[in-house]
Design goal:
This protein is mostly helical and 709 residues long. It is 62% helix and 4% strand. It has a 4-stranded antiparallel beta sheet with strand order 2-3-1-4, covered by helices on one side. The termini are far apart.
């Protein structure tokens, strides 16, 4: 890719981003859009009432940027929990690292690269038509002493990043302990989930669980609730909710308009019917069916139960001690928060969960193969020669300067963004099929899958497919990996720069919430259904890997192609403001893991650092500076030692709380008079919502009242 093609991509994406920002600043001021751009504030009753019309509501402004910047971390913690704080600190951490990296890269490494003459003689008069390779380390002469600038930069950025990683890990782990110590008694602190309960003839699962824990945990056991299959109930309740919405809408319109529909095809033929009466009768029938199924739920028991204890320490003991001689029976795991429970897959046994993992592995391999085919097609677009060979009839069109610049500089990264957007829902589905019992666990598992997919295939597949396809077989020889990466990674610098620039557009697209906006517009003008408030939750499983990919790109190309650093820095600045705005106004958290996403972030950044070291080792070897290659070797070793220390020092805090912490918290609650009421509620805290009694709708009441409790 030449410089002019990159500038074309930057111009297109910058223009689209500015347009989206301007549209957002105008659309968010319109009273009819408040449910789209501030649904959380509406739900919490904090949305300001729209004032009178003024010309200012039609003019773009940057007031929302100041509003998103001002809240403190304490405000963010109170609004989004510790997970929201961790997500925000990923951006602040990245801004610190890449601000320093950009200063070193742009003012030291970039001039060194460009002033080299390994690829050409300097010609400043024709800069727009120069290849971006001239700005990479490839342009530095072999054996040049200027390469020691890159060597020094590697040590500086590694030292700074390890220091900041340690500080962040320590800070968030202390926040996690403080979060637990200051929290009120929570049901999941006293409860564990027991699965694969062995069945005994003549005994119900409920009796078996109670007898087992009364015998082996007599002083700690409090109660248990057996899980039941409720898929049929869920279907009935969903039908009831849909009918109730229609009934509420009918009651909100004039009574003279309620009987306009006919009983025939699409309401066009047949006799006129009283829709209110029809829907009310259907609602009665469904309610009756719900009660019948609920009364027969004991026959649908699953060999799993939530077991509650009298203390946090008692629950922790039962959680971490193997309960049975057979490790596939009485399998324990930490119970999630009651509203975080994901009910559908409780029926899976140990064997079913194991088989599901094999199926998902096979499905993942198939997905990888399909994605590699897409990557191959995308990479062919970056090389006009390959594209003309595949499609000869496009030869004349591709020779047009503007067309060739758009095809090579903008189109490949745009296609990759669109395809990559399809992957997060698939990964979340795969995680749900593995039998996790909490939405938070499903998203954490999907986050790990997305991270592997992002690093190994969005990054490495593009690197290898783009320039060294014929040498992929050399990967089976570990000794050649640094050399292969040293050759292939710099060759794809232009593609990833364009990918980063295209991400500006995707960020501004997310800010505008274009799809919900269009959906709301259609609903308000073309649908008779009642407009409902939709409050989304932030998809950590897709957004965290996306951010970490840019950390990977920044560190990888820090030495090789520092031109990418300003574009990555702009991405993090935009992301910091946009996501803070969305966290406060749009997203409402469905759960809080207490910062358990941070170890995933830490490990990914360590991997990115080590990858930078491996590539540096290879590039110094190719550049015939063996001394620098040898002196780089201690860097990954020291980084691994640093990571090992962090794992032993901080990771246990994210997995379990210490006995000291648990017992201290239990003792604080001994004299709390509210604990008796808490334990009374704990007995029913994990009852399946589908088994809760429904509250009958008063059909003669024209006011809206909830159907279900």
């Amino acid at each position: 890719m030449i410089v002019s093609a990159l500038l074309t991509s930057v111009g297109i994406n910058l223009g689209i981003s500015v347009l989206f920002f301007a549209l957002y600043s105008v659309l968010r001021k319109q009273p009819c859009n408040i449910k789209i751009y501030a649904p959380r504030l509406v739900a919490e009753g904090r949305a300001q009432a729209p004032g009178r019309f003024s010309i200012e509501t039609l003019l773009p402004s940057a007031g929302w940027v100041r509003k998103a910047w001002q809240p403190t971390e304490e405000d963010l913690y109170n609004s989004c929990g510790l997970d929201g704080v961790v997500f925000d600190r990923i951006f602040s951490f990245s801004l610190k690292v890449f601000s320093l990296a950009a200063i070193i890269g742009v003012f030291v490494l970039l001039p060194v690269n460009y002033l080299g003459d390994h690829l050409r003689d300097i010609d400043f008069s024709d800069l727009p038509n120069k290849s971006l390779d001239l700005f990479t380390i490839s342009n530095v002469n072999d054996g040049s002493n200027w390469l020691w600038c890159h060597f020094s930069a590697a040590y500086i950025i590694t030292g700074v990043m390890c220091y900041l990683l340690y500080a962040e890990y320590k800070y968030i782990s202390e926040k996690r302990i403080a979060y637990f110590s200051s929290s009120k008694p929570q049901p999941h602190h006293y409860t564990i989930l027991v699965r694969d309960v062995p069945l005994h003839a003549g005994n119900s699962i409920n009796d078996t669980v109670r007898a087992f824990f009364m015998e082996y945990h007599p002083s700690d056991y409090l109660s248990n609730i057996v899980v039941c299959r409720t898929s049929k109930l869920q279907g009935l309740i969903t039908d009831a909710e849909n009918i109730y919405r229609k009934l509420t809408h009918l009651k909100s319109i004039a009574s003279s308009s309620r009987n306009q529909n006919r009983s025939g095809f699409f309401g066009l033929f047949g006799k006129r019917v009283d829709l209110v009466h029809n829907y009310s009768k259907k609602l009665e029938d469904i309610e009756q069916n719900v009660r019948l199924v609920q009364s027969d739920s004991r026959g649908e028991e699953v060999p799993a139960a939530f077991v509650s204890f009298k203390s946090r320490y008692g629950a922790a003991k039962a959680l971490h001690i193997q309960q049975s001689v057979n490790p596939t029976e009485w399998v324990t795991e930490q119970a999630p928060e009651p509203h975080d429970v994901y009910w559908p897959f409780f029926s899976t046994s140990f064997m079913q969960r194991w088989i599901s993992k094999l199926i998902i592995l096979a499905a993942s391999v198939l997905l990888i193969i399909l994605f590699l085919l897409v990557v191959g097609i995308v990479q062919s677009l970056t090389y006009l020669e390959q594209l003309e060979a595949l499609f000869p009839f496009l030869g004349k069109i591709l020779k047009i300067t503007v067309v060739s610049q758009i095809v090579t500089g903008y189109l490949p990264s745009l296609i990759l963004h669109l395809v990559a957007a399809l992957i997060p829902p698939i990964m979340k589905l795969f995680s749900a099929m593995q039998g996790y019992i909490a939405l938070s666990e499903i998203e954490r598992s999907a986050c790990n899958k997305m991270l592997l997919f992002t690093i190994w295939f969005l990054f490495f597949a593009n690197v290898l497919t783009g320039s060294v396809t014929s040498q992929i077989q050399l990967l089976f020889d570990p000794k050649t990996i640094p050399l292969i990466l040293a050759v292939s990674v710099p060759a794809q610098a232009s593609f990833f720069i364009a990918y980063v620039v295209t991400s500006w557009t995707s960020l501004s697209w997310a800010l505008n919430r274009t799809i919900p906006l269009i959906s709301d517009l259609v609903t308000r003008h073309f649908s008779k259904s009642k407009d409902e408030l939709d409050i989304p939750s932030i998809p950590y499983h897709s957004e965290i890997p996306r951010i970490l990919l840019f950390v990977l790109l920044g560190l990888t190309y820090f030495l090789l192609a520092p031109m990418i650093l300003p574009f990555i820095l702009i991405f993090f600045c935009m992301g910091y403001i946009i996501y803070r705005n969305q966290l406060f106004d749009v997203y409402q958290p469905k759960y809080d893991t207490g910062g358990r996403f941070w170890p995933v972030v830490h490990n990914s950044m360590i991997f990115s650092l080590v990858l930078m070291h491996v590539i540096a080792f290879g590039i110094f070897g190719l550049k015939k500076l063996p001394l620098a290659s040898g002196l780089i070797v201690p860097l990954p070793v020291l980084t691994f030692l640093f990571n090992d220390y962090c794992r032993k020092r901080f990771l246990p805090v994210f997995n379990n709380f210490s006995a000291e912490t648990l017992i201290k918290k239990d003792r604080e609650d001994l004299n709390d008079p509210a604990m008796d009421e808490f334990f009374d509620k704990l007995v029913t805290a994990y009852r399946d919502p589908a088994l809760m009694p429904i509250r009958r709708l008063n059909l003669n009441d024209d006011h809206s009242s909830p159907l279900l409790s």
